[in-house]
Amino acid sequence: MTHSHIIGAGMAGLAAAHALATQGHAVTLYEATPGAGGRARALPDGTDNGTHALIGCNTAALGFLDAIGARQYWVQPEPDGLPVYDCTDSSARLVALSPAGWWNGARRPAGVSWGGVLALMAMALPFRDRTIAEAMAAHPAFLRGFVDPLVIAALNTPSSEASTHRLGQVLRRLGAPGAARLFVARRGLGPDLVDPALAVFAAAGGAYRPGSRLRAIQSSNGRATSLTFQESDVMLGEADRVILALPPWEAQRMLTGIPAPDAFAPIVNLHFAFQPGGQVRFLGLLGALCQWVLIRPEGVAVTISAGDAEAEQDVAELAPRAWAEILRAVRAFHVPGDWPEAPPACRVIKERRATPRQRPGPIPTPPRRPLANLVLAGDWTWPHLPATIEAAICSGQAAAKEALA
To answer: What span, in angstroms and rounded, lies between the C-alpha atoms of 30 and 13?
Structure first.
């Protein structure tokens, strides 16, 4: 019987496993760590490792939520516009995430101008690839007030080194109605994404093997012949398939010489043990340590993308600064809750290699099928988008189709 072995239970591996198992194929999903989710994982206590969000143009990710019965758990926290607080001048405004909403002057981002909008839209065209800071040099206020937060969120790379072509891949998807709507998991990625995906996979007959770290792949005559795990070897039959859904450094360890990114950017996340109650909220901050603040009734999380300096600091340095900024923002937008002056207990999560650095230049793209019976998956293998949940799911679903071909 044909068997599919999927290595890595991140978003790409989960998407591939779901696609194959729900079509009636025999599938085993292996994960090196105790829990699934990869770099978008939920931690053992159920806390997300970051402030993860989807937008309306993430059709593959939203479709995957539909397929696993989890779409109902994802909410739109700010339907009237993203609350943005500027710590430099203490201004607070609601910003429409789509330029189509900027006809209303009250929903325009800071520094917006026709020239700035045209410069931004030009990045969606196949012009010369350069840094976003260079492309927006004539529009510094708009760069600071809208473009830079967009770049940090989508590319996890500072505008001073981020690629206009990579941002263009995002911009081209934002033109459809509803494409810029923001969604977050109501309870967290564990209960609202990873757990439902694993449940559907198990119900379809799939086997899940956490704590199974792949040590090596043996190959002969252009085919993978066996998989060496810490506890045992798995011999591959003539018709068996392998989907390798690992981060680039792990994939290169298994398959020497495949093209892969070699420069990465960190993301630092702070989780405060404070339960404000109320509704889910999502705030953006400018001129601040904090970039995005996700407020759930059960806790408050902060994301610092492209946080090279912050990745070297400890919680004692980061937490007081972040909490002071959060207090200013929640008071400006009248977020309910008995917010204490002193920072609550805080946990810091550092993903030092969260995503590749999205710089100008060619995208290192590996072959989809480096061996006859082995297919690669992962956000870094999907050249059509920056490294995101959407890219990971697209790559996993494409890998499943390729494995069946």
So the answer is: 9
Number of continuous H segments (helices) and E segments (strands) in the chain: 12, 18
The residues near 261 (Cβ < 8 Å, ≥ 6 apart) are 248, 356, 357, 364, 380
Q: Which residue has the tokens 């068996």?
A: 240
Tens digits of per-residue pLDDT, 200-230? 999 999 999 999 999 999 999 999 999 999 8
pLDDT single digits (tens) 86-140: 999 999 999 998 888 898 888 999 999 999 999 999 999 989 999 999 999 999 9
Q: Give the distance between the most distant pair of CA atoms in the chain.
A: 66
Distance in angstroms (rounded) separating the CA atoms of residues 240 and 237? 5
Would you say residue 45 has pLDDT above 70? no
Beta strands in 213-298 (DSSP E): 214-220, 223-229, 233-235, 241-244, 264-272, 281-286, 292-296
Averaged pLDDT for residues 242-263: 96
Distance, in Å, from the CA atom of 329 to the CA atom of 403, rounded to the nearest integer, reads 49
Sort strands 281-286 and 82-86 into parallel, antiparallel or unpaired.
Answer: parallel
pLDDT computed for residue 2 by the predictor: 84
Contacts of 224 (CB under 8 A, 6+ apart): 217, 218, 236, 242, 371, 373, 374
State how beta strands 207-210 and 26-31 pair. Answer: parallel
Helical H runs in 56-147?
59-67, 114-122, 132-135, 140-142
Cα first-last separation, the chain: 16
16, 7 in Cβ contact below 8 A?
A: no
Pairwise CA distance, residues 13 & 397, whole Å = 9
- Angle, helices 389-404 vs 59-67, to 10°: value is 70
What is the rounded radius of gyration, in angstroms, for the C-alpha atoms of the chain? 21
Q: How far apart are CA 366 and CA 193, in angstroms?
A: 28
The alpha-helical segments, DSSP class H, found in 185-266 are: 189, 195-203, 248-254
Six-digit token pair at 327? Answer: 């207090």
Query: 366 vs 39, which has greater pLDDT?
Result: 366
pLDDT given for residue 42 in this prediction: 67
Going along the chain from its start, the domains and CATH numbers come out as 3-48+188-262+367-404 (3.50.50.60), 98-180 (no CATH), 264-356 (3.90.660.10)
